[in-house]
Design a protein that fits this description.
mainly alpha, Ferritin, 63% helix, elongated, signal, Ferritin-like, DUF305 domain-containing protein, DUF305_CopM-like
């Protein structure tokens, strides 16, 4: 797929995510209100989500370093799903750990091969809650809500790299396309689980979380 076509498809993908999440249900209950408020994120705010966290694919090496840190947080969170009461969630967690761990290894190798003088460290801001103290439904629900937002950031960062033609190697362009497409599909699956199991949308309870801008 050419960069021009990839960029056009990426924009459509992100727009679809925005439309879908904007219409998701936002049921509010006392158990999960944060700071005494419920509510959600508008589609415009969602489209800006990646930039809010400083994740900008200004160049290929920045994309790789940022995505390594982003993936590491996802892997750590997904490992907590070993305690989930739902087989679907345990399997989903295993899939995230396997796929994103492999991508981390690949991106680190590219950074070492192509950008040996660049430090891998980035000023990454955590986007997910600490799940270690949660169990049962609370674990599954918090994971789904947080990981949807987490995936959105990766989708938008990947499409930004593709739209701007920032990938200097075909391998990185292909990886960005894979991350965008895989995580886009997973967003829809997680939204469905939230609706089916908890009757809420991903936005519910997001106010006050550690990932929000102060």
């Amino acid at each position: 797929m050419s960069r021009r076509i990839a960029g056009m498809v990426a924009v459509v993908v992100v727009l679809l995510v925005g439309v879908t999440t904007a219409v998701a249900a936002t049921v509010v209950d006392d158990d999960d209100r944060w700071n005494g408020r419920g509510g959600g994120m508008t589609s415009s705010q969602m489209m800006m989500f990646g930039g809010m966290h400083g994740m900008r694919a200004a160049s290929e090496d920045v994309y790789l370093a940022e995505m390594v840190a982003h993936h590491e947080e996802a892997v750590a969170a997904a490992q907590q799903l070993r305690r989930s009461p739902r087989a679907e969630m345990r399997e989903f967690g295993e899939s995230i750990v396997a796929s994103q761990s492999a991508q981390i290894d690949q991106m680190r190798q590219w950074l070492a091969d192509w950008y040996p003088d660049r430090t891998e460290q980035v000023a990454y801001r955590p986007m997910m809650r600490d799940l270690t103290g949660l169990s049962g439904d609370r674990l599954d629900r918090a994971f789904l809500q947080d990981m949807i937002r987490h995936h959105m950031a990766a989708v938008m960062m990947s499409q930004q790299l593709l739209v701007r033609g920032g990938a200097e190697h075909d391998e990185v362009e292909a990886l960005a396309e894979d991350i965008r497409d895989e995580q886009h599909a997973e967003i829809f699956q997680m939204q469905q689980w939230l609706r089916d199991w908890f009757g809420v949308g991903w936005q519910h309870g997001m106010h006050g979380g550690p990932w929000m801008m102060r």
